[in-house]
Give the backbone structure.
Amino acid sequence: MQLTVLLEEAREAGPDRRIMWRDPIAAFGERAIAGVQGWLADPVLAAFAIRVIQRVGEQGHIDEAAQALRGARRVVPPNLQGDLVWAIGRLRALKHPTPERSAKTAVSAPARTVRERPLFSTVARRRSR
């Protein structure tokens, strides 16, 4: 499908169904950013535009997406500023992964072998007199 058709369908879709258009639109990369950038000032479409731009960044255009989102700080409605800050933070985390995050994703062997037998006996001990 063409980007213009996808944008028009997303604009006409209800708020509960609009998110279904995010990934197909984001697949167009930088063209998708340009296509939804005008929606950032719209109180109805701004949340969707933020998510499309964020997805474009996650698909490899981090710098372009982050620049578009940072540039939108003045035009995004006040009730969506939190979404904007969250999306910028997500892109920043993708660009600069922390060492802890890399260590957590690495798979390592167990530090010691797991005992198969219990450390205690299920049989009662005899008391000594």
